Structure formats: structure tokens, C-alpha cells
TrEMBL record:
Coiled coil: none
GO biological process terms on file: regulation of synaptic transmission, cholinergic; sleep
Membrane-crossing residue ranges in chain numbering: 112-129
Stretch forming the signal peptide: 1-20
Pfam entry (one): QVR
Name recorded for this polypeptide: Protein sleepless
Keywords: Glycoprotein, Membrane, Signal, Transmembrane, Transmembrane helix
InterPro entries: QVR-like, Sleep_regulator, Snake_toxin-like_sf
Length: 130
């Protein structure tokens, strides 16, 4: 019975969440408040009607002018962050936790959330196996 419960808990951890993802959605070309990571609450938005949603932050530099676009998107590539080369360049970061499209480097946050989730699953498993 204990092993059955353990298998159930482990499988439960792999079921995707049904809740919607919340991201910041804005464009600094239309609203300068989008440029900085502070005071973004006004740009919170639900990413509904998107399969496998992700939040994105794109920082673009064109002719030495920098703009920031924060948006909802679907499925990310193999890398969570990448940069384009050249005089006009962009850095694009994707993440899949609520309101995660603030900082430029999102890998640390994603790793932290994975560790917390793993600890939670292990703790629940240990409690149930007593």
C-alpha cells in the first residue's frame, strides 16, 4: 500500500497544472514604464487561450535605442534565454512561472522553483510513507 501511495504521489507531480499563467504584457515603445523591472503591476495579464504558455521578455537594441517587450507566448525553444548578434541585437528570455518575465536571466528562478517542487514532493512522500 505504501508503494502504491508513493507511485501515486510521484505521478501526481508530473501532471501539468490546469491554471492559467500570468505574465507582464507591455511594450516600452508605447509605455515607458515597461523599461524597468519595478512598478510592473499595471501590466499583469492572464495568458489564456494559449497552449503550453510561457512568459517572454525581449530586450531589443536598434540604432542604439533600447526597447523592452514583455509578452505571453507559446512553447519555448531549447534555451530559456538567447541573444542575437550584430549592431542591432536582442536578448530573449522565456519562463513558465507566474510573473517571471522581469529579470533578464531567468534560469536561476527556474532552477530554484524546480528545487522547491522536488523538496515538496520528497517531503510529502516521506510523510505518507510513515
Amino acid at each position: 500500500m505504501q508503494y502504491l501511495m508513493l507511485i501515486f504521489v510521484v505521478l501526481l507531480a508530473f501532471i501539468p497544472s490546469i491554471t492559467t499563467l500570468n505574465c507582464y504584457v507591455c511594450n516600452s515603445n508605447k509605455d515607458f514604464g515597461c523599461l524597468t523591472d519595478s512598478n510592473l503591476a499595471q501590466f499583469e495579464s492572464q495568458c489564456s487561450n494559449i497552449e503550453d504558455p510561457y512568459c517572454r521578455k525581449i530586450v531589443q537594441t536598434v540604432d542604439s535605442m533600447t526597447s523592452v517587450v514583455r509578452a505571453c507566448g507559446s512553447k519555448t525553444g531549447a534555451k530559456s534565454c538567447y541573444k542575437t548578434a550584430g549592431n542591432n541585437h536582442a536578448s530573449v528570455c522565456s519562463c513558465n512561472t507566474d510573473l517571471c518575465n522581469t529579470a533578464a536571466n531567468l534560469n536561476g528562478q527556474q532552477r530554484f522553483m524546480m528545487i522547491i517542487q522536488s523538496i515538496a514532493v520528497l517531503t510529502i512522500t516521506m510523510i505518507l510513507l510513515r
